[in-house]
Amino acid sequence: xxxxxxxxxxxxxxxxxxxxxxxxxxxxxxxxxxxxxxxxxxxxxxxxxxxxxxxxxxxxxxxxxxxxxxxxxxxxxxxxxxxxxxxxxxxxxxxxxxxxxxxxxxxxxxxxxxxxxxxxxxxxxxxxxxxxxxxxxxxxxxxxxxxxxxxxxxxxxxxxxxxxxxxxxxxxxxxxxxxxxxxxxxxxxxxxxxxxxxxxxxxxxxxxxxxxxxxxxxxxxxxxxxxxxxxxxxxxxxxxxxxxxxxxxxxxxxxxxxxxxxxxxxxxxxxxxxxxxxxxxxxxxxxxxxxxxxxxxxxxxxxxxxxxxxxxxxxxxxxxxxxxxxxxxxxxxxxxxxxxxxxxxxxxxxxxxxxxxxxxxx
Length: 362
Known about the structure:
With 362 residues, the chain is of the alpha/beta class. The protein contains 14 helices and 13 strands. The strands form 2 sheets. A 7-stranded parallel sheet has the order 3-2-1-4-5-6-7, with helices on both faces. A 6-stranded parallel sheet has the order 10-9-8-11-12-13, sandwiched between helices. The longest helix is centred in the C-terminal third of the chain and has 18 residues, at 324-341.
């Protein structure tokens, strides 16, 4: 297997961090190996990701039809294209890719886990697949790897390769302005704990006396909690302070004009949203979950709090709101850390070294 043929397999290309990383990995691997991107559900492909595929000449194969027909097509694709290595992304792909890979005679089937916590049912299934079917599982975060090894995952089959950030940007120096814009850019799902985010903003206003001219909070994204978030805003009487922007076309421009990035998640892997914020030189206030402590160095490029601790989160936000120079210095530190520790070069070398170890049998 001197020149392996590789598939990166993912359930959808809906907007999300795992999907973005799967595209980056495919684009990187195709520079050295014959690589295909296989998508389980052809109906869920974001236009921005489709554009990325075409711009980078990625060979992609979206599966069509009923579930059993799609599975048959997946096995056939792996077999006919003599695929040697499959990299699966997320739980659905881990299961389907493992079974299909076995049927097709793929030499190495690699799972992918992207969060530090998974539900009980998924844990049982993923542990069995990892221990008895997959050759390895790649985690994008150290905390998730540690947690699942403690819950019975075979440690010798666990590999950690953190996410990377693809597009280099110059360090942004933001002028002193009012109001200070706090931003959260993420899917509208329970994991991101938007209720705590809004309670934090409410406490920030009541405890520290910030007015409309001092602070604005923007929530950018989309998802199942769109209506619930609107209801919480009304319940907490924050209509004047909070803007909700549903999947705007100019999300990156909105991030660029913000001053503080805020992410009070209940759990994470390696947060793509925080990486994105660091690329825009934004100081970060987040919860200490997953590998957030690998991204945010306390007091250097941001602050970390316990989950649901809205009082501490508000205190950390207030420090940044009141100190423009602190925002600039922390943003600069985060920007430097991103390109030092989470570059595409590091990401590429990690995957190529892993593939070389498979080829050589080491």
